[in-house]
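This part of the workshop introduces the protein records we will be handling. A learned vocabulary of local backbone shapes supplies the integers on the structure line. Getting from the letters to the tokens is the skill we practise here. As an example, a complete record with its sequence and its structure tokens follows.
=====
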Amino acid sequence: MATELELFFQEAAAKKSNVAFATGWQKLALKKNEEKDKQAAIAAVHHALALNPTLETSWQLLGLLSGYDSRPEVAEEAYRRAVSLRTDWELGIRYLSITRHLLYSYRDPAEVEECYQRFKADLLDFYSDFQTFSTEKKKSLYSWLCTTNTFLLPYLGKETRNLQQCYGTILHEVLTSVFPEGKERPPLPPVAPHQPLRIGILSEHFWEHTVWKLMLHGLLKHLNKEEFELYVYSVSDRNNSCTEIAKTYAYKFVQGNHPPDWWLKQIRSDRLHLILFPEIGMSFTVLMLAALRLAPIQCMSWGHPDTSGLPTIDYFLSSELMEPTDGQNHYTEKLVQLKNLGIFFSPLPQDPRPPITREEFGLKKDAVIYGCLQSVFKYLPQFDTIYPEIAALVPNCQFVFLTTMMSKNTRRRFEARLEQSFAKKNLDYQDYCFFSRPLNFYGFTSMLHCLDVFLDSIEWSGGNSTLEALYYAQLPIVTTPGRFMRGRHTAGILTLLQMPELIAPNIPAYIQRAAELGQNPEYRQYIRQKVQQNLPKVFEDQAGIRSLEDFIRTTVGKFAASQCLP
């Protein structure tokens, strides 16, 4: 059934064919993209271009949206058309097109490798030319920085360090060509005995977001206020109950959708000893500010668990339970492994309404339900065989996927992969795979109560989703550690929970453990009881916060003594 918005598009297209209406569709597309309603933006931009194919802004927007729609060939054509209409955009469009091969869903492992290599070649080629750019030419790229980033790169399951370093260098040099005062490290303010250190925390996510639950709330609440004055910078106008909570813990709270030079002046005037970015990579504003020197010591945490590549970020604050033995090799920052998870997770209160039932969702009433509740870009095609392998061992089962972050084409691509994978086992994927509508918090926690087993995504593990599955529904979770820290969150959480039996050493063992849980309801109940008993080990653990305090004290103290980073 068509949505209200889709019906509106259909009626408008039928009634308003005059070319003059094209700019209205373009404005709607830009608005929907800003609101992160990308499917509506795609529909609107197609209407705009159908009515007037000379709208260069619409072609540029179509290029940007094509990664979400998993159509690299459309991006290529869209960017070509944009440049043909605006030759002065050539350099900016070349910069945008670097990321055109980073998709939400890949057809097969060969396309993953092909897209990675094309991205790598385009970035390195641009980076090589960038070294010869004049300051004025670098400045001309500034207006293009807030339209794309490398957010999707680490989801490819590949090494990112050198590529992120190239990209981070470009960002830093463009921004400091515009704001040269952001290039040099500011001096460390005096460290006086018995006086609190001034610690900055900068984020866009002071609302019910993963970063708020994983890091911000616990950090603000539990850091020692006698030792640390918290200067909190919310680089967004978004305001709700979480924002109000943040204000109660802050020594100083500054909020607003301001340009980088405004924030640079504001934060430098606060004379911080250290600033922490809970994530770098999700928010354009945060990324640009992190590329400037706001404080003498700059750190990031694992809200987006990949190296920033920025020369301005000194330390990556990670978890001792999540890092592989070669962890430092994957970061341009100096790696700091905080105790246990390195965070204090703060779940939202349970919704007081009774959970939505299996029948109300449309799930099979008596099946073993496996939850696969991650964004589509966390599912790499080389791991699609997991689901039919489990289904062959647990015939009466169902796998739940979320359509959040799926355009129509991205969903078609993903379903085609599942169809092919199940067919190799002579199974029909439609008998086993259920695609849920996007869920709000109440819907998500309700879905958790419908599940029997939670299946962790491979090479990009669940963090917030794993903790919520444990907290709200005490679910058995099956995982296997990935190569990088971003693929080891759940393994770290289960280690702290003292449940190593749920951590498989490899993919065959992962399938076997998932099948054993599906086949044996008594075993599932035993696991649930053990999860319930051990939950305080995770949800009351402040070791990460205490070790963060130790790190701040030690690092600032050594810097003060030597005027250089330890």
Residues 265 and 545 are 29 Å apart (CA to CA). The two ends are 61 Å apart (CA to CA). The mean pLDDT is 95. The longest strand covers residues 197-203.
